[in-house]
């Protein structure tokens, strides 16, 4: 039971990390998860996790790399094959030699073979960490593909170099010829093993389907077991299990070309299932890493024969040494010039080189390698400075993540992505609308097709309006401010006209009360106090408090509403009164705006006149066929509610990924609150 509780706590930590990231999006999720892992390790729990490196690789790394292989852009991987191999093979072995000699020179108590083992553990970049960063940081596509391809391939070369360094340390024997031959056999053998086993799996699935076994659940179970089986078989054959699952994943990506109803259904289920598996495994990798840190640090901190400040110094020097070596290898090797095919020459290449250098974060494979260092040598003596080596490896993992999280968002942000660039704002606004339209298009059914098309047309109209905007940023913002003030003025005009109509007896008190509630909602939306998450929570709390403190008033209001709905004629009469009042107010506002319009304020006033005119025409159109449109309007409201939620999620994701500034996110949310009030205005009135 203790282990079960421990697993539950780690799963809860994954959820907490994602919630925390919503509030502090500038801190990457891996760092938050490592921090939560440290907290878990400090809790007084009965169970203590001891990491088995071999089990860690098969349980976490194998399925994650298999999934990454499935999702890899095959064409991009092929186009960048030379650069990927130069990083995955050339840079790894250069890192082992240069950093190995450097560590041995800087820390003489670490023998040369052990220093090579540490360098080999630090050489491979981590596919999981790279994936976490690329999802949050807007790296250029080609750099992202290069990093993903490198991370898929360099684990094998790093682990092979690590194994030979450990063997040389334990036995005292090393042969460059044997090492080179073994590497080729292990790497090529791993790829062949992955391809052969995948081919056998495809034949097996074809045979199963020929027997009429089309159960998606069965096929999904086979797919989940695939990376574990392939990895274990490859390791039993003494070839690279990591390259085997990568090759299998890439081969599975080609399977999608053969489309039939069964494959389509399996792909849909597979996407949902793997998204959950990868979400959990990604989180567990970094949380487990965090749980190991306190014990690793404590051993070195207390008795390693080296002062704590020296350990920190070693970690920083080695981290910057890895980044510097990576930078020189990429820049001098001319790996990057073709990644950014622009005419801005060396500056663009230098920027791309820096981005690629800092993106080489270390992670789970580095920790698993370091922890697999044996405790004793072949003669029975303790492995020299084992705790210090593991501590340095853990420190480099943390430093590489922190540096990438802190610096990459600044360097990766293109000029167009800043909120001070009107083209970027325009692009982001179009992107939001486009995403909503694409998502709604996927949700179309025979029942909601007409309503969805209307909502999609509204968004297309917004996109056309955005595309027509071609005004300097300063002028655009000045116009936005003036329009904002004018919209607030429109609300005041409506309040004044509503009071006047009430005094003249042209509107009932009930209709006036409900319409004033609508105007209050409009005013809140315009002032940024609309339906944000906190605002909705406050509104729910207010209603709950009112229900508890004044139950009789709440019950009477509920009874009045029920009575009204039970009397359709009376209810419809009230709705018609509200529609009349809104129509009179809209006409009144239209006249006021037309009177206000002149040559100096056309850019400010005319869009609001057009908007107001469209609302007036829509109300007149609805009047003649209210009963026949009730079902359609309800369907339209449902689709609009869905669209608003999609738009809100897109804005939040763009902000978390650093693609839009806080100011632009606030502006987009404020606009969304305004649209939401327009969409559900009639519902508020009722």
From TrEMBL:
One of its GO terms (cellular component) is plasma membrane. Pfam families: Na_H_Exchanger. GO terms for molecular function: potassium:proton antiporter activity; sodium:proton antiporter activity. GO terms for biological process: regulation of intracellular pH; sodium ion import across plasma membrane. The chain crosses the membrane at residues 6-24, 31-47, 53-70, 82-103, 109-135, 156-177, 183-204, 266-289, 309-329, 350-375, 387-411. It is found in: Cell membrane. Keywords: Antiport, Cell membrane, Ion transport, Membrane, Sodium, Sodium transport, Transmembrane, Transmembrane helix, Transport. The keyword Ubl conjugation does not apply. Signal peptide: none annotated. NCBIfam families: a_cpa1 (TIGR00831). Na(+)/H(+) antiporter that extrudes sodium in exchange for external protons. PANTHER family: SODIUM/HYDROGEN EXCHANGER, SODIUM_HYDROGEN EXCHANGER 7. This is Na+/H+ antiporter. It comes from Listeria rustica.
């Amino acid at each position: 039971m203790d282990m079960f509780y421990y697993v539950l706590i780690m799963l809860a930590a994954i959820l907490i990390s994602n919630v925390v990231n919503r509030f502090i999006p500038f801190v990457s999720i891996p760092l938050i998860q490592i921090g939560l892992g440290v907290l878990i390790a400090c809790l007084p729990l009965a169970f203590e996790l001891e990491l088995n490196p071999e089990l860690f690789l098969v349980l976490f790394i194998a399925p994650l790399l298999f999934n990454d292989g499935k999702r890899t852009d095959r064409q991009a991987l092929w186009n960048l094959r030379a650069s990927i191999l130069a990083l995955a093979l050339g840079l790894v072995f250069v890192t082992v030699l240069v950093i190995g000699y450097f560590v041995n020179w800087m820390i003489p108590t670490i023998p040369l073979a052990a220093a090579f083992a540490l360098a080999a553990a630090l050489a491979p970049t981590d596919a999981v960490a790279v994936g976490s960063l690329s999802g949050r940081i807007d790296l250029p596509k080609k750099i992202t593909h290069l990093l993903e391809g490198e991370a898929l391939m360099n684990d094998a070369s790093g682990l092979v170099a690590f194994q030979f360094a450990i063997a040389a340390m334990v036995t005292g024997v090393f042969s460059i010829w044997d090492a080179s031959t073994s590497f080729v056999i292990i790497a090529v053998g791993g790829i062949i093993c992955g391809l052969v086993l995948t081919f056998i799996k495809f034949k097996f699935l074809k045979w199963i389907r020929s027997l009429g076994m089309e159960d998606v659940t069965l096929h999904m179970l086979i797919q989940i077991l695939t990376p574990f089986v392939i990895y274990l078989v490859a390791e039993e054959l003494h070839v690279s299990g990591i390259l085997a699952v990568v090759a299998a994943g890439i081969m599975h990506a080609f399977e999608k070309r053969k489309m039939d109803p069964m494959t389509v259904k399996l792909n849909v289920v597979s996407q949902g299932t793997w998204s959950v598996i990868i979400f959990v495994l990604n989180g567990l990798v970094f949380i487990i890493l965090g749980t190991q840190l306190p014990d690793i640090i404590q051993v070195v901190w207390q008795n390693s024969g080296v002062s704590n400040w020296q350990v920190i110094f070693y970690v920083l020097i080695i981290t910057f040494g890895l980044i510097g070596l990576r930078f020189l290898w990429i820049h001098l090797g001319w790996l990057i010039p073709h990644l950014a095919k622009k005419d801005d020459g060396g500056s663009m290449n230098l920027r791309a080189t820096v981005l690629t250098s800092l993106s080489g974060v270390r992670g789970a494979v580095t920790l698993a390698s370091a922890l697999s260092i044996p405790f004793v040598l072949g003669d029975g003596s303790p492995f020299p400075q084992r705790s210090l080596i593991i501590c340095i490896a853990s420190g480099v993992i943390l430093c590489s993540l922190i540096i990438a999280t802190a610096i990459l968002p600044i360097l990766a942000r293109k000029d167009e992505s800043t909120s001070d660039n009107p083209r970027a704002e325009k692009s982001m606004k179009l992107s939001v609308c486009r995403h909503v339209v694409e998502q709604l298009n996927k949700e179309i059914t025979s029942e909601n097709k007409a309503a969805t098309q209307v909502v999609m047309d509204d968004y297309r109209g917004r996109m056309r309006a955005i595309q027509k905007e071609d005004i300097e940023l300063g002028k655009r913002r000045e116009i936005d401010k003036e329009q904002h003030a004018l919209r607030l003025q429109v609300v005041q005009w409506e309040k004044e006209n509503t009071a006047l109509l009430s005094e003249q007896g042209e509107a009932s008190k009930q209709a006036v009360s409900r319409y004033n509630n609508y105007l209050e909602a409009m005013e809140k939306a315009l002032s940024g106090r609309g339906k944000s998450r906190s605002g909705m929570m406050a509104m729910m709390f207010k209603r709950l408090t009112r229900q508890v403190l004044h139950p009789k008033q709440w019950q009477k209001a509920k009874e009045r509403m029920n009575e009204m709905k039970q009397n359709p004629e009376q209810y419809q009469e009230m709705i018609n009164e509200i529609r009349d009042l809104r129509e009179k107010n809209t006409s009144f506002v239209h006249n006021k705006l037309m009177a206000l319009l002149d040559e100096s304020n056309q850019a400010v006033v005319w869009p609001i006149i057009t908007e107001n005119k469209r609302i007036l025409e829509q109300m007149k159109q609805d009047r003649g066929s209210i009963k026949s449109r009730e079902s359609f309007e309800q369907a339209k409201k449902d689709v609009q509610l869905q669209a608003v939620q999609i738009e809100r999620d897109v804005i939040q994701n763009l902000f978390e990924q650093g693609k839009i500034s806080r100011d632009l996110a606030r502006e987009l949310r404020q606009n969304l609150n305004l649209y939401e009030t327009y969409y559900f205005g009639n519902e508020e009135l009722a």
